Automatic annotation (TrEMBL):
Keywords: Lyase
Native organism: Arthrobacter koreensis
InterPro entries assigned: Aminotrans_IV (IPR001544), Aminotransferase-like (IPR036038), BCAT-like_C (IPR043132), BCAT-like_N (IPR043131), Class-IV_PLP-Dep_Aminotrnsfr (IPR050571)
Residues annotated as transmembrane: none
Pfam families: Aminotran_4 (PF01063)
GO MF, one annotated term: 4-amino-4-deoxychorismate lyase activity
Enzyme kind, highest EC tier: lyase
Protein name: Aminodeoxychorismate lyase
UniProt family annotation: Belongs to the class-IV pyridoxal-phosphate-dependent aminotransferase family.
Amino acid sequence: MTVLVFLDPAYPAGRIADASKPQLMATDLGATRGDGVFESMLAVDGHARKVGMHLERMASSAAALQLDFPAPQVWEPAIATALAEFARVHGNAPAVVKLMLTRGPEGAGSPTAWVAASPVPESTGRQREEGLDVLLLDRGYDSSVAERAPWLLLGSKTLSYAVNMAALRFAKQHGADDVIFTSSDGKVLEGPTSTVVLAVVEDGVKTLLTPELESGILPGTTQSALFAAAEKEGWQLGYGPLEPTHLMQADGVWLISSIRLLAPVKSIDGSPVPVSRELTDELAALVETVL
Ligand code: PLP
């Protein structure tokens, strides 16, 4: 069961709402145009991970849409209320905590904002254990479009995820589990809901690589936290540009994100890529240190 808590000036700790009843106006621009921003974060033992990073990224997504962003001091009590209510219903099960902010009902001129807490889908554990068959799909933009065309909102986490979901359905129809988008000029970008990370181990030197943000990808909070933790353990870090050959030649490729954490890629377009249990365990342990 999903727990809903709306941000509401009359309720300083947020207003709990019934997720089985209609709660949103049918004219809400989040629903009619996907005009809004969101975040998904993982909560373990009643504690939401990387809240500061998620609120910071959401604020910058909101700024890109010229959307007023409620202060962290308004979100935080609502998150706490949602997690307390979730614990009352689900005990100490981990939760997906979503923060949603839309432009609000047409003509109202005030945003709608709420927190949703729900159980973590079982598929996330399976994908971490079994790994992913991935397709490379062309996103159709070149890797310099983000700066040239800021209205595309590349790099913002908007509610317009229909394209990302369509790419995942396309992969599933073609026997794969997930997608790595490429740019029209052949650069590796990101997954529809994840950041791409690869590892190269040479002469005992371990390097983690990820595509550069300038290519129009979302700045991943998990990637950023993993890189900071890995650097402390002596890993070298690198930021693109990457091409599919780099993925094929790597010692390991992962899709990483806040909920699924770190899932190894086992094939790309039907060609096997090495899956290292040792590297996966080492990086997964580093991700677990990120609270
Ligand atoms: N890239 C995209 C497009 C995403 O939707 C997500 C998360 O949903 C990520 C990357 C990973 O971001 P994070 O690690 O902050 O969850």
